[in-house]
Specification:
Elements: H1 2-9, H2 18-32, H3 35-43, H4 50-72, E1 78-80, H5 84-93, H6 100-119, H7 122-129, H8 132-153, E2 157-160, E3 164-167, H9 172-189, H10 195-217, H11 245-248, H12 254-279, H13 291-308, E4 313-315, H14 319-324, H15 330-340, H16 355-368, H17 381-396, H18 400-417, H19 426-440
Antiparallel strand pairs: 1-4, 2-3
Helix pairs in contact: 2-15, 3-4, 4-13, 4-15, 5-12, 6-12, 6-13, 8-12, 8-16, 8-17, 8-18, 9-10, 9-16, 10-16, 12-18, 17-18, 18-19
Length: 441
């Protein structure tokens, strides 16, 4: 069995093992499992049934991740994208007043266009047109983005009117976060196998202990860990195949479909590039390994999202957690995908893994993702300034798309006005036009 897995997934060639891939898959799952609950919470604001969206989220995440592993043999997991689900809910449904069924139709159509672009293969041309310096900046920017998400999720960083952001103060949650960060860092430094998973488990147990004592002695108003009230929750089919294709095919839907299409496209491409760069899963020319296959899987993920009843699926930056744990093949993605399936029925168990346990992992993975910055020639300002813009704007705008769009535009303008037009890939002009349209849409 192990030899068969080795041959199919090229485990030895990529210097990995079955045990290492399983641990990596578990690690990726634990860092992105929040989407099972968070995505339904967001989409329920659009009037969609919470349990129905939960089922759709689990199915999309599981099928897409398994397909990535089997077809592309890459350790990248997929799920409905954060940010895109907010766009679906607050812009399309609540903002424009369309029904959630029509919005699902728009997601499905954007997925079909994705597939066509991937087969042609326009998306691969786009991938090759992106300058290496921007790839490095995007990779590190995604790391900063993950770090910011981690700090923000536990209140370590909070919004402030005078300074935009600030320290959230000392409390039980921030102290637990620091505890988890230090413990997990020590495990990583000592190269303990499964360090990220152990860090999550140890911090979760510590949070449970603090919750029990805090409630008992009155220094906590509510528990930091929500123990499950039940073990089983039956799935619902309330949003399954409920998309409205007729409504989505109206002329007025061109703008929303276009926005979904290119927001998802740039998010997935930039995430894919960043993770590939950090993991070393690139070919001899420095291009992401099996790029065409991976982009096609990403497109299929968006398409089935519209069918199953959720916003667009996309490659997840949390895949970096599994890669840092040692995942190098599709077996990692398959393990992650399989771990989603039981939560069609066991979703209440996720309440035992609080944000304070996963936040340290996001921060540590963010630190890992700073490595590509070493590849940038910081003395060459025409290359470093666009990369620096991408690096900073991804976390500061809370958008991967904004970071890569402005990186593209500034890179092109600098090359044009310094007389180095020949260094601009022809496809980059097309990307720039699309980038400008995204900004205005």
């Amino acid at each position: 069995m192990e030899k068969a897995l080795d041959r199919f997934f090229e485990l030895s060639k990529r210097k990995s093992s079955v045990v290492g891939e399983v641990l990596a898959g578990i690690s990726t799952f634990l860092t992105m499992a929040y989407i099972i609950v968070v995505n339904p919470q967001i989409l329920s604001n659009a009037g969609m049934d919470f349990s129905g969206v939960l089922l759709a989220t689990v199915l999309v995440s599981s099928i897409s991740s398994i397909l990535m592993g089997l077809y592309a043999n890459l350790p990248y997991a997929l799920a409905p994208g954060m940010g895109i689900n907010a766009f679906f809910t607050f812009s399309l449904v609540l903002g424009m007043g369309m029904s959630w069924q029509t919005a699902l139709g728009a997601v499905f159509l954007s997925g079909i266009i994705f597939i066509l672009l991937s087969i042609l293969p326009v998306r691969l041309w786009i991938l090759h047109a992106v300058p290496k310096t921007i790839r490095y900046g995007v990779a590190a920017g995604i790391g900063l983005f993950l770090t910011l998400i981690g700090f923000k999720s536990v209140g370590f960083i909070v919004s402030q009117e005078a300074t935009l952001v600030g320290f959230g103060g000392i409390n039980a949650q921030t102290l637990l976060f620091v505890f988890g960060l230090v413990i997990t860092s020590i495990l990583v430094i000592r190269r303990v196998k499964g360090a990220l998973i152990l860090g999550i488990v140890i911090t979760s147990l510590a949070a449970l202990g603090v919750s029990v004592l805090g409630l008992k002695y009155g220094w906590l108003e509510k528990p930091l860990v929500q123990l499950p009230t039940s073990l089983v929750s039956l799935p619902k089919l309330d949003v399954f195949l409920k998309l409205d294709l007729v409504g989505a095919l109206q002329l007025s839907m061109i703008g929303p479909i276009f926005s979904l299409l290119f927001t998802d496209m740039f998010d997935s491409i930039s995430t894919f590039m960043g993770i590939a760069q950090v993991s070393g899963l690139v070919d001899k020319d420095g291009q992401p390994l099996h790029a065409k296959k991976a982009l096609l899987v990403d497109a299929i993920s968006t398409t089935i999202s519209g069918l199953f009843g959720t916003s667009s699926g996309t490659t997840y930056i949390e895949s970096a957690a599994g890669i840092e744990e040692g995942g190098r093949t599709g077996l990692t993605a398959i393990v992650t995908g399989l771990l989603f399936l039981p939560f069609m029925f066991l979703s209440p168990l996720l309440s035992f893994v609080p944000a304070v346990a996963t936040a340290p992992i996001l921060v540590i993975v963010g630190a890992f993702m700073m490595k590509p910055l070493l590849q940038i020639d910081w003395n060459n300002f025409e290359e470093t300034i666009p990369a620096f813009m991408s690096l900073l704007l991804i976390p500061l705008t809370y958008s991967i798309t904004q970071g890569i769009v402005w990186g593209f535009l500034i890179y092109t303008l600098i090359k044009l006005f310094t007389g180095k037009i020949k260094e601009i890939h022809p496809m980059l002009y097309v990307i720039d036009i699309l980038a400008i349209m995204i900004l205005f849409f």
